[in-house]
Amino acid sequence: MSTPEGRLRALIFDFDGTLAELNIDFAAMRQTVEALARDRGFAGPWPAAGYLLEQVAEVSARLGNGYGRQALELIEAVELEAAARGRLFAFTRPLLVQAQQAGLAVAIISRNCGPAIRRVFPDIERHCGVFAPREAVPRVKPDPGHPLTALAALGVGPEAAVLIGDHPVDIQTARAAGCRAVGVASGRVDRAGLLAAGADLALNDAANLLEALASRGWLGSRLAFSDQIEPPKQPGRG
């Protein structure tokens, strides 16, 4: 799909690794839900396709017996524990305020659960027009319905939106939805990896996002940007 051009009207942000430190132990999360499946009698190979939520759904379809609900409860427990240790990047609130002052609609979407995100960012709804965590949509990214649902609520078409995220799944989602894609290397994937995934632009982090978008001619007018936004401390890798 070719990259849409023209002035942007909306920014869609991923959360973990983009606006906040990424400290979820996904390997431990998978081990926990797989152990539950084995205890319930699942003997086949663990699904290789998709990400953990999709793998749990596939195993749940075979096991039934409430496995899917219990697995999601375990996943949420890991997310909440990580959120208790999490924090927003220093630039996050100023960036979101600047974006809205510039007349841009803002959405925040995530595969994470709402309670965990609100633990890190309790005033999140004051900083965006739409907040769509996992439980707010029928299917999460990389399904394009996730950002498209957010955009419909904002009243903006995908051709006038950019999705900003720290992982190739965000780039894949943007492409599938017909949005522009900006990668930020503040998670666990470097700029080269994000560009290889198809990002239109890859930044070290989102601190200077608006300036970068303006330099591409995507904001369409001169805007006043603060030079006081502080880049994030790098989260631990692993």
Keywords:
alpha/beta; elongated; 11% strand; 9 helices; Rossmann fold; single chain; 238 residues; 2 domains; 6 strands; six-stranded parallel β-sheet
Characterise the protein shown here.
- The protein is 39% helix and 11% strand.
- It is α/β, with parallel strands linked by helices and 238 residues long.
- The protein has two domains: 10-22 and 87-215, Rossmann fold; 26-84, no CATH class.
- 43% of the residues are buried.
- The longest helix has 18 residues, at 67-84.
- The chain contains nine helices and six strands.
- It is elongated, with a radius of gyration of 18 Å.
- Helix 1 runs parallel beside helix 2 (52-63) and helix 1 (26-39) packs antiparallel against helix 3.
Short description:
The chain is of the alpha/beta class and 238 residues long. The chain contains 9 helices and 6 strands. The protein folds into 2 domains: 142 residues, Rossmann fold (3-Layer(aba) Sandwich); 59 residues, no CATH class.
How many separate domains make up the residues?
A: 2
Largest sheet properties: 6 strands, parallel
Helix content: 25-40%
How many helical elements? 9
What portion of residues belong to β-strands?
Answer: 5-15%
H/E topology pattern? EHHHHEHEHEHEHEH
> Which regions have little confidence, pLDDT < 50, spanning 5+ residues?
224-238
Q: Rough shape?
A: elongated
C-alpha-based Rg, rounded? 18 Å
Q: Strand pairing plus helix content: what structural class?
A: alpha/beta
Strand order of the largest sheet: 3-2-1-4-5-6
Under the CATH scheme, which architecture of the largest domain would be assigned? 3-Layer(aba) Sandwich
For the record, the CATH class of the largest domain is: Alpha Beta
The count of β-strands is 6
Question: Roughly what is the average pLDDT, rounded to an integer?
Answer: 91
CATH topology of the largest domain: Rossmann fold
CATH-assigned homologous superfamily of the largest domain = HAD superfamily/HAD-like
